[in-house]
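Format notes (please read before filing issues)

Several people have asked whether sequences and structure tokens are stored in separate files. They are not. Every record keeps both together, in the order shown below: the sequence lines, then the token lines. Line labels are part of the format and must not be stripped during preprocessing.
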Amino acid sequence: MTAQPHAFARTDRSKLGVWWWTTDRWLLGATAALMFLGVMLSFASSPAATARIGIDQPFHFAIRQGFYAAAAAVILLSVSMLSPKGVRRVAFFIWIAAVLSMMALPFIGHAAKGATRWIQLGPLSLQPSEFVKPSLIVLVSWMFAETQKGEGVPGVSIAVGLYALTIGLLLIQPDIGQSLLITVAFGAAFFMAGVPFGWIAGMAGLAVAGMIGAYLTFDHVRSRFTRFLSPEGSDTHQVDRAAEAIGAGGLLGRGPGEGVMKRHVPDLHTDFIYSVAAEEYGLIFSLLLISLFAVLTLRGLLKAMKLTEPFEQVAAAGLFVLVGQQACINVAVNLNLIPTKGMTLPFISYGGSSMLAMGLTLGMALALTRKRPGGYSAPRRDADAFA
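Then the structure lines:
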């Protein structure tokens, strides 16, 4: 009798078996670890967060975060099984849905903290801008790749148009943080696509002009920069309490559930979850958390650089830059290295839209970096295609 191949054996040709042997296990492991740590840290932050806002159930946020993590895992698994063509299709429809939702925000959006960024769906709040980020990166990478084929497709112009429309809708909300995040990821895709330096210099100049314009136009942006540059005469309660929580953790932390300073940190379960992790688990754990993001980003970029297809290479690199940059911004805010921004720590901060969108982002990135016949070698560049 012939032995039947067991699950995940190399001879297993089922869709799940093929997925397992073609997906980068280091990237998958780092992602799974971050999702697990996100749920674990929600149990640490939820009691203090619910007490601050008057919710009776102390583990309200932790339970919901567990549900979001499970849903994100399903999204990640499903999307990571797609072909590059399937990734493009999913990105197209998600971008359309996200942009239409952002257009509707001024009329049906839910306002909070001076911005209208959410659509209320029963007990859930959906933030369309979280989903527009990965889908935009995939679409502009597709357009760059079409331009490289030299078949007359105005890919760069279309990509810039998609970017401009998305940024315009974000500024209406307003959401400067997400605009900055998308701009850097878009710039990374621009660079990876081999676009001539003139285009890159022009985009960099527009980005600088945009930052100056945001400072002059939006009061909250100007206020955050002022507090950062002149803290002695400003209200820095949020970052001060976060700094105290991080310092109180020491090398090994106070212990699970033993945090004291976290009770005084606003938004401790979302934007300042890093300070909770540092207080309860210490510096070593904090460095481990940062290392997971470093492994995810740097290994992802190395995998992307080895891809032969321009679309897959540029899109994968842009998606990993998106994740890594968002993690850097959140940690830098917690450490008071940059002005405060409403930016979640991927997979760690509480939030349904953030968790689900990150599942989508890494699902696309894993799908594009899966092993395929002849999938890795030095990519061919045709700079003249952009001329």
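For reference, the curators noted about this record: The chain has 13 helices and three strands. Confidence is low (pLDDT under 50) at residues 377-381.
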